[in-house]
Amino acid sequence: FAKAMMERMNITSVDEAEKDGGSAEEEKEKEKKDEYIVVFSRSTTRLILNEAELIMALAQEFQMRVVTVSLEEQTFPSIVQVISGASMLVSMHGAQLVSALFLPRGAAVVELFPFAVNPEQYTPYKTLASLPGMDLQYVSWRNTMEENTITHPDRPWEQGGIAHLEKDEQERILASKD
Q1: Any idea where the Glycosyltransferase 61 catalytic domain is (predicted)?
Q2: What are phi and psi of 90, to 5 degrees?
Q3: DSSP 83-128
């Protein structure tokens, strides 16, 4: 499905774009050297407050280069092309994680959940990673420290605001710790 979608959008995968006709051994060595991690970066909502620190930690821990992508600054096809060659995709919980569909087999998806959002209650990307033929490793991480959170309850609903909800529901959400 992902391959058909990429063909339909006229997107060349990173693997296809980089083939140069070398030997199988050279290709394997090049693959190892070219492994990278993709981090979805956002500038208005669902920010990773310590993004620079996270990028440095990922690069150091996995000895891979880390590339950031942003739907606010790049086209979806260009992001899909980058993701199609990644070893790992790291992102805050959100719709952009559907792009994990374009990861190569064996890659990892790391979904970061904000404070008071329980990963056990939101599993679409965990489910995507476990679909037959996807062969993706899925890991969720949850922020358990309220002080590391910035909320925007007064923003419009499409930006995560809750002002459109009934007062009782707003109070329940604001009091939520799970």
Answers
A1: 29-110
A2: -120, 130
A3: HTT-SEEEEESSGGGGGGGGSPTT-EEEEEE-TT--GGG--HHHHH
Residue from 107, 159, 115 nearest 135 by CA:
107
Length of the chain: 178
What is the per-residue pLDDT for 113?
92
pTM of whole model > 0.85? no
Residue 35, pLDDT score: 95
Q: What are the tokens at 169?
A: 């529901």
The sign of the dihedral angle between the CA atoms of 62, 70, 96, 81 is negative
Return the beta strands (E) in the chain as ranges: 36-40, 65-69, 88-92, 108-113, 137-142
Structural domains in the chain, CATH included, are 2-144 (3.40.50), 151-178 (no CATH)
